[in-house]
Design brief:
The chain is an alpha/beta fold and 180 residues long. The protein contains 7 helices and 8 strands, in the order αβββαβαβαβαβαβα. It has one domain: HAD superfamily/HAD-like (Rossmann fold, 3-Layer(aba) Sandwich). It has a 6-stranded parallel β-sheet, with helices on both faces. A two-stranded antiparallel ribbon has the order 2-3. Helix 6 links the parallel strand 7 and strand 8. It is globular, with a radius of gyration of 16 Å.
Length: 180
């Protein structure tokens, strides 16, 4: 049995506190598919919409982004560089340990982290962060651990959808503070 689902109000409250969005790669930034060239070169498909969501987070509400993944490829490294990802952790087989290192380095708390994952190796992080999410095509295990299940699939705008939720929450929070 999964954790109790949050109300929209509680989700927005948690999202308004986010300082860093961390995502997994395969199944989140990609559609879990791997393409191979005739030479055996591996290729992945990334969504331009997800990239725009990451950029909007940085520019509009000053939320930085990170990747924690078991993957250790030039493809992911290149995409992260293009997206100006500030926390890039490739080849991480101990994702929870990597998360704790990020918290110490940045002097932030679990409640200030949002994480999007899609499979069993993401669940422990999903249980610890302020806001956890998964794509609509994530595993049942990830869905049970998530605070938010976005409508889009991995590699098809799932990260953008979460980014827009965080942007919305932060703008609502600003309006509340501006009104007082």
């Amino acid at each position: 049995m999964g954790k109790k689902k949050l109300s929209k109000k509680d989700i927005l409250k948690r999202a308004s506190k986010i300082k860093l969005l961390i995502v997994d790669v395969d199944g989140v930034l990609t559609d879990t598919g791997v393409y191979y060239s005739a030479n055996g070169e591996e290729m992945k498909r990334f969504s331009i919409r997800d990239g725009m969501g990451i950029e909007r987070l940085r520019i509009l509400v000053n939320v930085e982004t990170g990747i924690i993944t078991r993957e250790n490829t030039e493809i992911v490294s290149s995409r992260a560089k293009k997206l100006k990802i500030t926390e890039l952790h490739l080849g991480s087989f101990e994702k929870e340990k990597t998360l704790e290192e990020i918290l110490i380095k940045r002097n932030i708390s679990h409640s200030e982290i949002a994480f999007m994952g899609d499979d069993t190796n993401d669940i422990e992080i999903m249980k610890k962060v302020g806001l956890s999410a998964c794509p609509s095509d994530a595993t049942t295990f990830a869905k049970e651990a998530a605070d938010v299940i976005v409508k889009n699939k991995g590699g098809n705008g799932a990260v953008r959808e979460l980014a827009e939720l965080i942007i919305e929450a932060k703008k609502i929070g600003r309006k509340k503070y501006d009104a007082s």
